[in-house]
């Protein structure tokens, strides 16, 4: 059973469509939905005792065996709800973590998900155990009270978190070495970013003729894939990476855990921000992506908007021009309308990438000229020592 609480935020999903898609992606079957309004969350039960009773009645009526909340619950709220409803209660955060755990394929991806899940569970051990009696310390029956089971479990989880962080640190260093190698080779790096299921992988496959996994589902791609793409008009190749999709209320643990993967976006020369143009909520999805980019420090990387799924837009709503500009955080950025599935509008994006590559090379050449003539006017050349 899906439950959403409207606190008056503009992005509230009154139909719980996205939560339903997340549940189906995780292999669950939504049988009922319930939406309520509150000014602030109830400290104990998140929704209040009266609404909790209604949730239990509806769940019993439709035969639900688990309750999923569209918002993040505190450990205490989750524990209290499970006691009140007499059935498992989980939130959006755990649902996303479960999907990531199912989809991770690479060693790095599995490590990142493992770390995020360990950090999530470390705050929720209280509700996992009913046998919290103290162990006895000392030899035989002598000695004082030992550690409780929960203290042992916390220590085990903290040790596991430390080990996983150490292993991720090695992976991060390997990725940094690979990025430095690309920089030494003077490679122009482009990263695809966007809301989940916007069609990034389909676009990636279409422009670089790759065979990365693509599907009409949330979080089809978790592991970064990088390929070379030759731009004929620029007579050079660029490096283009397909990254994990973003989503509203992406758990902070995942943002931190996927730092090594998301670093591809931070270090890129250009971001191709892929948008599902057929989704009525795409303006809010764009803002959610911008929010995550700010969190990872990639807000200053130049962007180009790629409005995908042109073929899915009603004919009378399709734009008359397939290339224009769009105001993004107060700045006008280039925008292209494409259909990655049909191959429509991709050549215009390739041409723009070629122009960006040529412009960057010109800037680099200007930098080389400045180094040869250090007395030249820095402002005129637009370079700093």
UniProtKB/TrEMBL annotation:
Residues that, per the record, bind Mg(2+): 201, 221
GO molecular function terms listed in the Swiss-Prot or TrEMBL record: GTP binding; GTPase activity; metal ion binding; ribosome binding
Gene Ontology CC terms: cytoplasm
Keywords: Cytoplasm, GTP-binding, Magnesium, Metal-binding, Nucleotide-binding
Chain residues that bind GTP: 194-201, 219-223, 242-245, 308-311
Domain Hflx-type G span(s) in chain numbering: 188-361
Subunit and interaction comment: Monomer. Associates with the 50S ribosomal subunit.
Similarity comment: family membership: Belongs to the TRAFAC class OBG-HflX-like GTPase superfamily. HflX GTPase family.
Protein name listed in UniProt: GTPase HflX
Gene this protein is translated from: hflX
